[in-house]
Amino acid sequence: RYHLPKMLLLWRNVFPRSLKELEAEKARGDSFTWQVTLEGRAGALCAMRSFVAHCPELLTEDVIRKLMTPIECAMTMMSHIPSVIKTHGAHLKASAAMVRLRLYDILALLPPKTYEGSFNPLLRELVAEFTLTDNSANTTTSLLRSLCHYDDSVLLGSWLQETDHKSIEDQLQPNSASGSGALEHDPSSIYLRIPAGEA
């Protein structure tokens, strides 16, 4: 509780606050700067997701409203990522996919009424995500595996079967090429993905 105001301030300052700031950022950044920026923003969204998941007693209306500022900035930034990837290279796809995945993770935990004003841009992003219409950044961030019933493992392959090393297989398999959720690209998967019984 004591550190919450500082955390909210840090999370808010990780993202550009206006479209003008975002445009200036796009104009001056190079490839390495964008990689570091995207990884930092994915980390901030992951920290916000952990906060929402593990500190529900601190989620007052005011705190949720303050959380929505960086989340809305992240949504705005995501609509500009394809041009950044086109300008600075396809190697940024994995980092952009992590930002998208973390954004979807936190939105899934928040009540939809808190971001109903952002449904239009979110819907555009989701349509582009599912249809892979943006050829310059068509790295997927599939959450299908986590939503499927155990009996549906026939569709997804034998790696979904219950084994003593299932959590490791789960982290190595999904979206490995893009980095989304893969153990080698996502340090947070160590604590976010392992079910309590398998730790």
UniProtKB/TrEMBL annotation:
Protein's name in the database: HEAT repeat-containing protein 1
Gene Ontology CC annotations of this record: cytosol; endocytic vesicle; Golgi apparatus; membrane
Coiled coil: none
GO terms, biological process: endocytosis; intracellular protein localization; retrograde transport, endosome to Golgi
InterPro entries according to UniProt: Laa1/Sip1/HEATR5 (IPR040108)
